[in-house]
Design brief:
The structure holds 2 protein chains of 2 kinds.
Chain A (H helix, E strand, L loop, with lengths): L3 H9 L6 H20 L2 H18 L9 H19 L19 H12 L3 H12 L4 H8 L3 H19 L1
Chain B lengths: L7 H5 L5 H13 L1 H18 L9 E6 L7 E6 L1 H16 L13 H58 L1
Antiparallel strand pairs in B: 1-2
Helix pairs in contact in B: 2-3, 4-5
Classes of the chains: A mainly alpha, B mainly alpha.
Chain lengths: ~170, ~170
């Protein structure tokens, strides 16, 4: 089993196709992160592509190979915020019912996805990264370029607002 | 101890030290306000977590130019297209190579070229095998999800019908 660090080394040494291993591993989490941030599936897919393209181009700048996760999410963060800035003034986007519903009720899925989109961007991002991506507070702090204490406050405020919205 | 306040998320996500947790537990036992808030946050957390991740609608595949041109490009392939492409490529690369006439020995450059192509083909075969594994797992997941979705629709319809009757 090849480690992430090993794969990165191989890609940097010219074995570009091995980048697909990283894509395979991270495509779904990054897609879901972007989707939960912007609320539009098609756009999330396009932005996900941009994230990996940028990651491939800038892989050489990743100094600490063991911090690939936070580095990749940082690129996704910048990509999302760049897209969100272009849409200031718009309220949340109408979500189409997803095809990935499992035993969870469809109503809950839609309610949660809509509620998330009503949070301020920085709070929504912390909630998504903590609840769904299970990142450490320190990693989220790197991604948001903010102190850990701020990240924790954002999570708390995000949870409080979600409780108010979801009841 | 004062109210948990923002530390409630540390408590919920198990990010407290043992001592902090013991103190928090003791506080929650005697503070109905914090106890209610903890329960509310817990229930919210489980509700959020109950929403599963979605499968990306398309797959991202990174390709490098196989020939001399060093062009690299990215493509999004729909599952159907990539499955077809994979099968076509599999056929191409898995087909037995045509045997060269066993007369004169192959020139050195040709041998080197063939070795290079063999390596490329082997890499491609490896990649396509992993593609096949991936799509088979996707197919299994899709079948499971179709079943669950159909069941959800059925339950909703039953619920609607019973509401109408009432």
């Amino acid at each position: 089993m090849r480690t992430e660090r090993h794969v990165i080394e191989r890609v940097l040494n010219g074995d570009s196709e091995d980048f697909n291993l990283l894509v395979r591993q991270w495509e779904k989490p990054i897609y879901n992160f972007i989707f939960r941030m912007i609320g539009n599936r098609d756009e999330a897919m396009d932005l996900c592509q941009d994230v990996f393209l940028k990651a491939f181009r800038e892989l050489g700048t990743l100094k600490d190979r063991d911090r690939f996760t936070a580095w990749l999410y940082r690129i996704a963060h910048n990509t999302c915020y760049s897209r969100l800035r272009k849409n200031i003034g718009k309220t949340w986007v109408e979500l189409d019912p997803d095809t990935g519903a499992k035993s969870v009720s469809i109503e809950n899925r839609i309610a949660v996805e809509r509620a998330l989109l009503q949070l301020p961007d920085d709070q929504r991002e912390v909630v998504v990264l903590k609840v769904y991506q299970d990142l450490k507070f320190e990693e989220i702090a790197v991604i948001q370029d903010a102190p850990v204490s701020t990240v924790k406050s954002r999570l708390y405020m995000g949870f409080e607002k979600l409780r108010g919205i979801l009841g | 101890m004062s109210h948990l306040g923002e530390r409630i998320t540390d408590y919920l996500l198990d990010e407290m030290t043992e001592l902090e947790r013991t103190q928090a537990d003791a506080h929650i036992r005697q503070c109905p306000e914090c106890a209610t808030q903890v329960e509310g946050f817990k229930s919210l957390y489980f509700r959020l977590q109950a929403v599963p991740a979605s499968e990306p609608p398309r797959r991202l595949v990174f390709e490098t130019g196989k020939k001399a041109a060093p062009t690299r490009f990215w493509t999004w392939l729909s599952p159907a297209v990539s499955a077809v492409a994979a099968s076509v490529l599999t056929v191409i690369f898995l087909a037995p190579p045509s045997t060269p006439p066993a007369t004169a020995p192959a020139p050195q450059w040709l041998a080197a070229e063939l070795d290079k192509r063999d390596t490329e083909n082997n890499n491609e075969i490896k990649r396509l095998r992993s593609e096949i594994d991936y799509w088979e797992s996707q197919q299994r997941a899709a079948s499971r999800e179709s079943f669950v979705t159909a069941r959800s629709i059925q339950l909703l319809a039953q619920k609607q019908a019973s509401l109408r009757e009432e």
